[in-house]
Specification:
This protein is mainly α. The protein folds into two domains: 42 residues, Arc Repressor Mutant, subunit A (Orthogonal Bundle), CATH 1.10.10.60; 160 residues, Orthogonal Bundle (Tetracycline Repressor, domain 2). 71% of the residues lie in helices and 0% in strands. α4 packs parallel to α8, α5 crosses α6 and α5 packs antiparallel against α8. It starts with a helix and ends with a helix.
Length: 216
């Protein structure tokens, strides 16, 4: 049985996904966990502490989803796997995703950093882990000679922008529900970008086959 702190965090994530950020309150958490509102203050000092704990858990689970695949000798294939996992997480957990990377005042990550100059997406290491995974695979693609070196963090930022914009539009329903967001929008745009950065279409196709084999 999970301890009370873990129960409260997990309940917060459930409420966030089911009812949205505005529904998070000490009373709702107490009702969801069968505890008292005092438990929220005893273990977290208040709702600010709960939100911070939810953010840490959300980013940790997101990072795990992106990295829980063995590294191969094909960095482009590994990048494709990360992209597929990224989209899957966002679509499976839309409220959590939008609160992690959204622009609203309620965003779980209030510690943004200018990744083009700092090389990180957040001033908090636990929030930057998922971006670190992207930085790593981009550096490997450059080292392997698949794409040119415009700066690791800058290229990572470009690729993230494409993925983020595509999944937000897909969450909003603009691309239907038949994986068109992946097959007709996100993947072609990413692959065109890789070609523009110096990769070859035939090599990308082989990397795609390897990535799909890894995920199957």
């Amino acid at each position: 049985m999970a301890d009370v702190k873990t129960q409260i965090v997990d309940a917060g994530i459930r409420i966030l996904e089911r009812d949205g950020f505005a529904a998070l309150s000490a009373r709702r958490l107490a009702g969801e966990t069968g505890t008292s509102t005092m438990a929220v203050y005893t273990h977290f000092g208040g709702m600010t502490g709960v939100i911070d704990a939810i953010a840490q858990t959300a980013f940790a689970r997101f990072t795990q989803a992106l990295t829980d695949v063995a590294r191969t000798d094909d960095p482009v294939a590994d990048f494709i796997v990360i992209g597929i996992r990224y989209r899957e997480f966002a679509l499976a957990h839309p409220q959590r995703y939008q609160m992690m990377f959204g622009t609203s005042a309620e965003s779980l990550n209030r510690h943004h950093a200018d990744l083009t100059t700092t090389g990180t997406a957040s001033s908090r290491a636990e929030f930057a882990m998922s971006f670190d995974a992207l930085l790593d695979v981009v550096a490997r693609m450059i080292e392997a000679g698949r794409i040119r070196d415009d700066g690791v963090s800058v290229i990572a930022g470009r690729l993230w922008s494409i993925a983020h914009g595509a999944v937000l539009l897909e969450i909003a329903g603009f691309f239907g529900h038949d994986d068109h967001g992946l097959t007709q929008i996100l993947a072609p745009t990413i692959f065109d970008t890789l070609v523009g950065l110096g990769d070859e279409r035939e090599r990308i196709d082989r990397s795609l086959e390897a990535a799909l084999a890894t995920l199957s």
